[in-house]
From TrEMBL:
Keywords: Hydrolase, Protease, Repeat, Serine protease, Signal. GO terms for molecular function: serine-type endopeptidase activity. InterPro entries: Chloro_Bact_Ser_Proteases, PDZ, PDZ_sf, Pept_S1C_Do, Peptidase_S1_PA, Peptidase_S1C. This is Periplasmic serine protease, Do/DeqQ family. Substrate binds at H132, D162, G237, N238, S239.
Amino acid sequence: MHRLWLIFAQAVTISVAGLFAFHTLQPLWFAQPQAPAENRGSMVQEAAPGMAEPAEDEHRTDGYRRAAQRAMPSVVHIFTSQEVKTPRNPFLNDPFFRHFFGDRAEMQPQRRQGLGSGVIVNGDGYILTNNHVIADADDIEVATQDGRKYKARIVGGDPDSDLAVVRVDLESGTHLSAVVFAPPESLRIGDVVLAIGNPFGVGQTVTHGIVSALGRSHLGINTFENFIQTDAAINPGNSGGALVDARGHLVGINTAIYSQSGGSMGIGFAIPVSLAKTIMEQIIQTGTVTRGWIGVEVQEITPELAESFKLPNTEGALIAGVMRGGPADLAGIRPGDVLLAVAGTRITDPQSMLEQIASQTPGQKAVIQIRRDGREGSVAVLIARRPKPRPE
């Protein structure tokens, strides 16, 4: 009996040891051989064509490279020069001085250099820029992104909106890369924008930011203001350059900056494409811009003025002066009247009044609603053509 129990115990011990060894060594017996570490990547790449890859986010892979590459060939550098008359040295009026130094002391004419940017809007050579970039210039040179240089001539300018068009004469069969205009009113606050231009003359540069605000006015920059505000860096030399969206489509013309140092402080202003396109088309067709005018001077209605004139609110524009013999004078409008509406469009302030009058067609009558002595009425005014600004 004892012998049988000993044999049983030994058999159980051997079986347990066998099971332990089997479970311990099983992973090594059935494991698949693995490639060396340096070859593992190539195995994944070989398997990838048969697998569905996740969709790539364009902005994650290449930022806004495509938008910049699409718009940059349409942005040019503009170099201008102007002969400046220097004041005559008072010593030259002295015969004694002239006896010793003669006419050699006469100061030679000097030329003032300027730089800016422009946007090609037509493959035939039309370029949109700021009026202040080319104003009074007697020599204009345009350089494209690929290094070609052309002499340019002014087609026309509009100081009231600070827009101008220049044109370069191209050889037969030669075309420039024109920009693509974004749909009007497509821009929203927070949209990504790129500013392209030639800041400080260093060469074509792209900066990145967002739309900070829309419809900025009352800045004292232009007569007609409706600016896009952006924090994309805009510096001297960017004027007239392109502000484009994330697709590379033109949304504005870079025009001005707010700065206390002369450099970018994150507040730049651009003329929206809707206004720029309208002005550009008029300049190309006629060489000038035609706006309506009635010959009045207006001012904002403050709460104090509203109380003084016993007005119910501050809406409208107060007529501060009327040009004698002008359209408003002939229609019977007087100082002290409050202009409430033009051709059915309500007026909220002097800027909106100016814009509505300017949008009227010269030679046609427009019904203007006014308030006088607490009573409202309307008069028909024959719209005249807005005079050109006097040179400073």
